[in-house]
Amino acid sequence: MIGFTTALGGLIAMLAVVGTATAMEVELPTGSPRNLAPGDAPAGVKDEPVEPTATTVKLVPLRTLRMRSRGEYVRDLQKALRKRRILVRVDGTFGRGTRRGVRIVQKRKKLRATGVATVRFQRRLGIRPRKLTVPVSGGAATPVTEGVFAAFPVARGYSYSNDYGAPRSQGSHQGIDIIAPRGIPIYAVNDGVVDRLSRAEQGLGGRYVWQKGTDGTTEYYYAHMDSIAAGLDAGDRVSAGQVIGTVGNTGDARFGVHHLHFEWRPKGRSSNPYPHLIAADPTKSPPSAAGR
Question: What are the pLDDT digits (tens) for 153-211?
Fold first, then answer.
């Protein structure tokens, strides 16, 4: 019994020595403990620097404004008219009141009273090109100096996002889908000529309109339309803001949500129209506006 007690005591003493040695090998932190706030990185973890989003600023050139034109430049025109004590609604839509105001100013300046606000006329009112800040992707920003839209392609009740290039069953998305109820008017975004159209559903686009710009090289594609404006045919000239059809879900969108699939093809090559849609959208302001 004495032998067992002696052995047990020796074992306990040995464990105490091992424990002391282990404790001596542990490095204790120096200084006061760090108080972490919500969102802080854990102690010992360095915060990774956040790369700022690369952007570039482009000028959005002035365009001729007429009936049914829409966007921020129409707002600028309406504000300029109000400064001249002409009561017009500042809503970004070129309607009868805005046309009447333009005619009044044209008569005051002894110009031909056409009711159309040319680029030269806008400059005489002090309207200057806006600046648009756009994100740089892959080292190059989406160009915004060519093919800027004088009108937004859908009349009202719409929503959209930058889904250009998103994966689709037939490949990457070549346009922007603008969601809107069936039957909402679709506008030509710029002056031009109808290149071709189909009132019968065919292919992925269903009922569609292809338009060429006045430069002869820029193309605009409006697809999944419910209907096409009566009397509109290939070879017809169209003006920015002119109704060319209505929103639908024809073609491969047959069982999906009603929307306009819109493409912009400067020099025949697919390009992202999203920055231009934002600039022309009367419900939104450009990310950065000149002189604001």
Answer: 999 999 999 999 888 777 789 999 999 999 999 999 999 999 999 999 998 999 999 99
The better pLDDT of the pair 64, 228 is held by 228
Residue range 19-61, pLDDT digits in tens: 444 444 444 444 444 443 333 333 333 434 434 445 555 566 7
pLDDT at 132 over 50: yes
Residues of the chain with CATH 1.10.101.10: 55-124
Distance CA 23, CA 11 (A): 19
Is 122 within 8 Å of 116 (Cβ atoms)? no
Cα angle 170, 175, 178 (rounded to 5 degrees) comes to 115
Stretch(es) of the chain classified as CATH 2.70.70.10: 150-280
Q: Domain 150-280 belongs to what topology? A: Glucose Permease (Domain IIA) (2.70.70)
Between residues 291 and 94, the one the model is more confident about:
94
pLDDT of residue 289: 38
User: How far is the C-alpha of 31 from the C-alpha of 158, rounded, in Å?
Assistant: 58
What are all long-range contacts of 268-272, with beta carbons under 8 Å and residues at least 24 apart?
268/217, 268/219, 270/174, 270/175, 271/142, 271/143, 271/147, 272/142, 272/162, 272/164, 272/165, 272/176
- φ/ψ of 70, rounded to 5, equals -140, 155
Pick the CATH number of 55-124 from 2.70.98.10, 1.10.101.10, 3.40.50.880, 1.10.510.10: 1.10.101.10
